[in-house]
Amino acid sequence: MLRRFLVGLTGGMGSGKTEALRQFSDLGALTISLDEIARAQALPGGPAFSKIVRAFGFEILDESGHIDRRKLAGQVFSSSVTRKRLENLTHPLILKEMLRLMSRSSGIVVADVPLLFEGGHEKYFDATMAILAPISLRLLRVSKRDTLSLLEIKKRMSSQISDKERRKCADIAIDNDGDLIGFRQKVAEYYRAFCLMTKAKIG
User: What is the chain written as a DSSP string?
Assistant: First the structure.
């Protein structure tokens, strides 16, 4: 069995970390998305569903009885207190599932952890990687991708640490200035380096 090498991936909204995670997956790494874990756990019957509804009320549900993520976000990002309440309810469950998945793996594992440094989760990884991008480009990407107002986007971004702090904390920082081919090449170069660390075959 290959030696396990765990990489914690992070970046702000619109930085390109989802694209980086997809690239790592295409190259052969096992990838884990904490956003996907969170969405699954918040479905009816999931471990976080009843906790969230009790904390934020039935008004966050849509007509089908599912949590309306935009309604929930409207409450959560209204203040740091409500955001912290949601984090205290859901983060232990998400972290537990992440650790379970990583413990059953071998080779290169890349986990997309939005609040990697804010939550002190870097201790679980052999290396940390931050995807960085100019704020103007990040705003443009998110406004095209999501049905959020500019004010909503800025409010969510302000709840995260800055790219300057990410660069300081991360073992590896990749700048994503919009050159997709160049960005993918950078990710591939680091994947090859990780393969050497695990003595994996890279083809």
Answer: -PPPEEEEEEE-TTSSHHHHHHHHHHHT-EEEEHHHHHHHHTSTTSTTHHHHHHHH-GGGB-TTSSB-HHHHHHHHTT-HHHHHHHHHHHHHHHHHHHHHHHHT--SEEEEE-TTTTTTTGGGG-SEEEEEE--HHHHHHHHHHHS---HHHHHHHHHTS--HHHHHHH-SEEEE-SS-HHHHHHHHHHHHHHHHHHHT----
